[in-house]
Design brief:
It contains ten helices and 30 strands. The chain has 484 residues and is an alpha+beta fold. It folds into three domains: 271 residues, Thrombin, subunit H; 94 residues, Pdz3 Domain, CATH 2.30.42.10; 89 residues, PDZ domain (Pdz3 Domain, Roll), CATH 2.30.42.10. The strands form five sheets. Strands 24, 25, 26, 27, 28, 29 and 30 form a seven-stranded antiparallel β-sheet that branches.
């Protein structure tokens, strides 16, 4: 299973499920028993070095040494190792013949799957629910969960959300220990945290550090991000593991690292617990995340903008535009309103507003705290539905292989508001998907030249030099993709 990467400041952001190095990857034979044995061996390595937890070691003068061991004794049983057998591309049937395999210098046995490992956290012992990363279990044929007591349980996928990289698994609810949820919104930069996971598939490992930053965004192309940044050592294989505070409470799900060679350099990221819980709740209710929208374009409140608009605050989301017929218009929001909170939870940036609304089920009512001309208001709004373009067939163009596009037509919510090309579908594993294009994107420019129709897009792509800079709107954001 190849690691998922995207470039950021010439460094690599690694969303690898576990073993990105070729030496650590192996072709997995047909029988699942070997996978169970490998996972069990990793757990034996981890458990053999576990510290004694009965009491703290004595220091000089009879004073106990400071230790995280008592806290970890309660939380580590909730952190699991995850092994998967991943799907591999189908081969030509002729390659099932050993003669052809030797002739083309292929391995003696056809590949049946790839062994990979990651981490997960038990969040509901009674129902056997385990949370991990979407990229850990994506394309998995079989999933096995290894517990600290050396048991290996077969797991099934309840649901996943690629937008936040969260997946929910279910295992038999037999003698499980669940992690306690913590308040990730109460975290501050400088707070101590501990990362627990299965780096490089060697077994459960604990590292410690501090919260380096909060609300990190723009690290991937999906857009639903509000990462906790930490310098606790996180490596490939920690994906899906726990980030806990010093009370042993779960405050994040470890997800990504930045490293020049795929290893830890002190910059790791975790999905905050409040976001993970919202995703889990929707997956359990609907089997998926049903994202909503207000229908506003916003920008961050900065000290400079606050001065120009005479705002008494220096954080929040300023409403720039409101879509006709949207939830925001029906609720009475106006341009230049400043959204400062949703349901009592502070909003500091435009991305926070989008993330919070995107994780509220469609149709639910929310309360917005708004500043209008310096006066505080409370406005109730019912979250609207993101427009789904799957019912529009669209057409293909050679320069965006794997994607289908169409003009914005009457009946679409954005009709009459913008002239653009809507991406109606993107095949997984296609060139368009690898380049970051997603269904629902609105293409508005090619190499900084405005395009308004499929015909204009085709003409611009035909003459554009590579790499092509594709400007598009995704939700309430304008982003640029490089098409190579």
């Amino acid at each position: 299973m190849s690691p998922r990467r995207c470039a950021l400041a010439r460094l690599r952001i690694e969303f690898a499920p576990c073993l990105p190095m070729r030496k650590a990857m192996s072709r997995f034979p047909d029988d699942a028993a070997r996978l169970r044995a490998a996972l069990l061996a990793a757990m034996l390595v981890a458990s053999s070095g576990a510290p004694a937890l009965a009491q703290l070691p004595a220091a000089g003068g009879g004073q106990p040494l400071p230790s995280l061991a008592p806290m970890l004794a309660g939380v580590t049983p909730a952190v699991v190792n995850i092994a998967v057998v991943a799907r591999v591309p189908e081969e030509n049937p002729l390659f099932a013949d050993p003669f052809f395999r030797r002739f083309f210098d292929l391995p003696d046995r056809p590949p049946r799957g790839e062994q990979a490992a990651g981490s997960g956290v038990i969040v509901d012992a009674a129902r056997g629910l385990v949370v991990t990363n979407h990229h850990v279990v994506k394309d998995a044929q079989e999933i096995f969960v290894g517990l600290k007591d050396r048991r290996v349980l077969k797991a099934e996928v309840v649901g996943t959300d690629p937008g936040t990289d969260i997946a929910v698994l279910r295992v038999p609810p037999e003698r499980l220990t669940a992690a306690r949820w913590g308040d990730s919104e109460a975290l501050n930069v400088g707070d101590f945290v501990v990362a627990i996971g299965n780096p490089f598939g060697i077994g459960q490992t604990v590292t410690s550090g501090i919260v380096s930053a909060l609300g990190r965004t723009g690290l991937s192309i999906e857009g639903y991000e509000e990462f906790i940044q930490t310098d606790a050592s996180i490596n490939p294989g920690n994906s899906g593991g726990a980030l806990v505070n010093l009370r042993g409470e779960l405050v994040g799900i470890n997800t990504a690292i930045i490293g020049p060679a795929g290893g830890n350099v002190g910059i790791g990221f975790a999905v905050p617990a409040h976001m993970a819980r919202a995703v889990i709740d929707q997956i359990l209710r609907f089997g998926e995340v049903r994202r909503g929208k207000l229908g506003v374009s916003t920008q961050d409140v900065t000290p400079d903008l606050a001065g120009k608009l005479g705002l008494p605050v220096t954080e929040g989301a300023v409403v720039a535009q409101i879509e006709r017929g949207s939830a925001a218009e029906r609720a009475g929001l106006r341009p230049r309103d400043v959204v400062t909170a949703i349901d009592g939870r502070r909003i500091r940036t435009s991305s926070e507003l989008r993330n919070r609304v995107g994780l509220i089920p469609v149709g639910e009512e929310i309360e917005l705290e708004v500043l209008r001309e310096g006066r505080p208001l409370r406005i109730r709004a019912r979250v609207g539905e993101l427009y789904q373009v799957t019912r529009v067939t669209g057409e293909t163009i050679p320069q965006l292989a794997g994607a289908r596009v169409a003009n914005v037509e009457p009946g679409m919510p954005m009709h009459g508001q913008i002239e653009a090309i809507v991406v109606t579908a993107v095949e997984e594993a296609s060139a368009a998907h690898r380049n970051g294009l997603r269904a629902g994107d609105l293409i508005v420019g090619v190499n900084r030249v405005r395009v308004r129709s499929v015909a204009e897009l085709v003409a611009a792509m035909r003459t554009a030099q590579r790499p092509v800079r594709l400007t598009l709107l995704r939700g309430e954001y304008r982003i640029t993709l490089l098409i190579r």
